[in-house]
Amino acid sequence: MNNIRVKHSLPHRVRLKVPAVRNSEKIARNLEKYADDIEGIYWARVNTVCAGLVIRFDESMFTENEIINLFMQQVTQRTT
Questions:
Q1: Each residue of 45-66: pLDDT tens digit?
Q2: Which domain holds residue 55?
Q3: How many CB atoms lie within 10 A of CB 65?
Q4: CATH code: domain of residue 52
Q5: DSSP state letters, 13-61
């Protein structure tokens, strides 16, 4: 359930497949709020229909792997 994977990435942006958010508005909103509280993340959008999460971030503050790890930890906490 928590097998997050990168679907696509560009500088400053990464699109993740997050099965845990499929049809879960509660987890989706929690992830968006979590992103809002982190300096260096501009925004995050969740699509519960396709289980997608797009994150726009400041590359001078985070690497793509750091962003993935942050959200992996958060999804794991929300689903256990």
A1: 999 999 999 999 999 999 999 9
A2: 5-75
A3: 10
A4: 3.30.70.100
A5: EEEEE-GGGTT-HHHHHHHHHHHHTSTTEEEEEEETTTTEEEEEE-TTT
Sheet of strand 5-10, all strands in order from the earlier edge strand to the far edge: 5-10, 13-17, 52-57, 41-47
pLDDT at 67 over 80: yes
| Total-model pTM | 0.89
Domain count, the chain: 1
Query: What is the β-pairing status of strands 5-10 and 41-47?
Result: unpaired
CA distance 31 to 53: 9
Quote the tokens at residue 33: 């709020």
13 assigned to some structural domain: yes
